[in-house]
Each structure stands twice: as structure tokens, then as C-alpha cells.
């Protein structure tokens, strides 16, 4: 019995500090509810579709498609070009807690902080700084198939 206790104590030292159990699987397609966005001090509505194409442990790759309604007259700005829709490549990483994650856009200034409220619902808080600053929060649902 004493040997088992010593073995278990020794195994505890082999686990890195802050290590978590396996991170949730985000792979697949996510569709986000239309949500208010404040961009360049103007109000409009944002819709996202997110495709998480690859995940290795805590790291993942995603493509984010965004849309703003033309009727509101508030344009986005992707790589210096005004528009009402676009696509952004992103990278993400889970925190050591295995529950929250951050996602940053590649060649674009926006970032998201998120978590899963259940296996099929992603909650995101997003922002970008600078001349095209914006803030929003999104509720996204995993799509079947």
C-alpha cells in the first residue's frame, strides 16, 4: 500500500503545472446568431460562420466568414477595402484551464476570447483596435454534417 502511495505522489510531479485534460473538440462548422456590433462608433449587425478545419491538442485553425447588412450602410474594412462581407483566416489556442480559448486573425487585427457553454454552443467576445475598431459578442452553434 505504501508503494502505491509513493508511486502516485511521484506521478503527480510528472504532470506539468497548469496542464489540463484534453481540450474540447472545436472541429467543424459553426453558425453564429446575428448580433449587435459597434464598429467605428456606428451600430450595425454582424453574422459569422466559422469553420474550424484542424485542431491539434490546444491549437486550432479556423476560417471566419463575416457579413454586415448593406441596408444599415455601415461597412467593414478588410485589408484596406471597405465591404459588407469577407473571410478571415484565424489561429486559436485553449488556455491551460482547457475551457477558454483565444482566436486571432491572420493578416487582420481582430481577436476573440471564447468558451463553450455546451458541446455545441460557442460564446465569443471579439474586438479590434485602431482606425477600424469594433466590439461584439457572438453565440455560435455547431452545425451537423
Uncertain segments of ≥5 residues (pLDDT<50)?
3-20
By CATH reckoning, the class would read: Mainly Beta
Helix content: under 10%
Count up the helices. 1
Backbone structural class: mainly beta
In whole angstroms, the N-to-C terminal distance is 50 Å
How much is the radius of gyration in Å?
19 Å
CATH superfamily: Quinohemoprotein amine dehydrogenase alpha subunit, domain 2
Largest sheet features: 9 strands, antiparallel
Tally of extended strands?
Answer: 11
Structurally, the number of domains stands at 1
The amount of beta strand, in percent, is over 45%
What is the arithmetic mean of pLDDT?
A: 85
CATH fold type: Lipocalin
Shape by Cα distribution: globular
Q: SSE string, helix = H, strand = E?
A: HEEEEEEEEEEE
> Which CATH-level-2 architecture?
Beta Barrel
Structure, explained:
The structure is a single chain. The chain is mainly β. It has a single domain, classed as Lipocalin. It is built from one helix and eleven strands. It has one helix at 2-14, and strands at residues 28-32, 35-39, 42-56, 59-67, 76-78, 81-83, 85-94, 100-106, 111-118, 121-128, 134-142. Strands 1, 2, 3, 4, 7, 8, 9, 10 and 11 form a nine-stranded antiparallel β-sheet that branches. Strands 5-6 form a two-stranded antiparallel ribbon. A hairpin with a 5-residue loop joins strand 7 (85-94) and strand 8 (100-106). The termini are far apart.
Amino acid at each position: 500500500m505504501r508503494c502505491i502511495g509513493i508511486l502516485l505522489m511521484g506521478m503527480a510531479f510528472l504532470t506539468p503545472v497548469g496542464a489540463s485534460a484534453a481540450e474540447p473538440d472545436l472541429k467543424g462548422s459553426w453558425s453564429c446568431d446575428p448580433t449587435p456590433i459597434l464598429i467605428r462608433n456606428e451600430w450595425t449587425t454582424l453574422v459569422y460562420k466559422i469553420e474550424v478545419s484542424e485542431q491539434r491538442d490546444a491549437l486550432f485553425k479556423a476560417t471566419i466568414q463575416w457579413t454586415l447588412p448593406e441596408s444599415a450602410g455601415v461597412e467593414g474594412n478588410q485589408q484596406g477595402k471597405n465591404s459588407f462581407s469577407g473571410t478571415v483566416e484565424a489561429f486559436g489556442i485553449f488556455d491551460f484551464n482547457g475551457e477558454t480559448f483565444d482566436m486571432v486573425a491572420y493578416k487582420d487585427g481582430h481577436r476573440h476570447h471564447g468558451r463553450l457553454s455546451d458541446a455545441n454552443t460557442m460564446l465569443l467576445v471579439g474586438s479590434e483596435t485602431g482606425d477600424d475598431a469594433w466590439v461584439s459578442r457572438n453565440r455560435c452553434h455547431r452545425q451537423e454534417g
